[in-house]
Write a structure and sequence with these properties.
The complex is a heterodimer. By secondary structure, chain A is an all-alpha fold. Chain A contains 3 helices and no strands. Chain A has one domain (about 1-100, about 125-130). Classes of the chains: A mainly alpha, B mainly alpha.
Chain lengths: ~130, ~130
């Protein structure tokens, strides 16, 4: 019973982080902030989901479930190392390619713009071979 | 307490959010955004396989598939990122005489001095 509550709590928290990751990936304006959303939320939500799965599997304790939980713990450890590494490789490639970053557009009178004319100035240069 | 409906609901929610991430893969606007979206989707696929194994009742079988998928996803992301990063670097110089092996034959074009490599990517943004 206690274990079930822990499993449900861990998985719901993981789902919350994954929702935040998805919203960040869809809504953030440029590449770097999208990586910021994906790199953290993805790792933590995966860890929480798999942690809940480990707790559920260890609910009926035996040798086989212990082996399975050990393998799952290895996957958690691997993802905890590999996912930030992959994110770092992606953002390194994007930085070396000079992917344009987002700045708040500037109005005609020199002040910074607001949300209304956000679309009026496109600071981004997208080279033609990037648009594939 | 029977947790199977909860796991099914979690799997459906993860699948729906993965479809939402697929919007970023389709819409771009750059190649590296697509790679980022595919990385997130691949990481979540490992969770999805574990949940399917729990629902199916054969977790010990599905764990190995999950481990292989996690490894493959990481290698795919690293390879694609390195390929993309290599595009940004300047082209290698033309082979000079000191760089060409004698067994390479006469068809290798040898120049005295390498021309200045054109750099099509690194323009000034403003």
């Amino acid at each position: 019973m206690i274990i079930d509550i822990l499993v449900i709590t861990a998985m719901l928290t993981g789902l919350l982080f994954f929702v935040a990751t998805t919203v960040g990936i869809i809504r953030f304006p440029d590449f770097y902030s999208r990586v910021h959303a994906a790199g953290k939320g993805d790792t933590l939500s995966t860890t929480l989901f798999l942690g809940g799965a480990i707790l559920f599997i260890l609910g009926d304790f035996s040798g086989d479930t212990l082996l399975t939980a050990g393998k799952l713990l290895l996957i958690v450890f691997y993802i905890f190392i590999a996912s930030p590494t992959a994110t770092h490789a992606i953002i390194d490639a994007g930085y070396e390619f000079r992917v344009p970053y987002w700045t708040r557009p500037i109005k005609d009178n020199g002040t910074q713009g607001d949300e209304e004319n956000e679309e009026t100035l496109d600071n981004g240069f997208y080279p033609e071979d990037l648009k594939g | 307490m029977n947790l199977e409906p909860f796991f099914i609901a979690m799997a459906v929610a993860i699948l729906f959010l993965m479809l939402c991430n697929l919007y970023r893969v389709v819409a771009g606007p750059t190649v590296i955004d697509r790679m980022l979206g595919m990385n997130v989707i691949g990481t979540k696929t490992t969770v999805l396989i574990v949940l399917i194994g729990i629902i199916d009742g054969r977790v010990a079988l599905f764990i190995d598939i999950t481990l292989a998928y996690a490894l493959l996803n990481f290698i795919t992301t690293i390879a694609a990122a390195r390929f993309y990063q290599r595009l940004a670097q300047p082209a290698p110089p033309e082979p000079r005489e000191s760089m060409v092996a004698p067994s390479a034959g006469p068809e290798v074009k040898v120049v005295d001095a390498p021309p200045a490599a054109p750099d099509p990517v690194r323009k000034e943004t403003r």
